[in-house]
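Workshop exercise sheet. Pairs work together: one partner reads the sequence aloud, the other fills in the structure field after running the prediction. Swap roles for the next sheet.
Pair: D.N. / O.F.
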Amino acid sequence: MTIISKSFEGKESKMAKSFSRLRAKMTPTARQRSAARAREMMASMPLHELRQAMQMSQDQLARELHVKQANISKIERRTDMYISTLRSYVQAMGGDLEIIVRFSHGSVKIDQFEEMKGSRE
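Structure field:
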């Protein structure tokens, strides 16, 4: 949503409203829907958005993994990669990778790919 305001020169300009002001005007139901949608969006995102949400640049992540920034860019564009590559990427941001299989009757954590204690790929 934008606001049209007049500058001191008499020209119209558009200014964005702050989210906190918009949120304050929302009904409690709308705020609940918004919060639920935000949780849903945070539960599923591509790697580059996850890195950005963790407030890390590609350069920072590359330094942590001892690779070049271009390698991070390639990883973030891949649709297929080794589990060890994904695990290293996630660990460099301070996370742990878990692989969960979901069935209609329940979920199962696959532990076959977990790294062995004391070793790091």
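Discussion prompt: Residues 45-116 form a domain with the 434 Repressor (Amino-terminal Domain) fold (CATH 1.10.260.40). What would you look at next?
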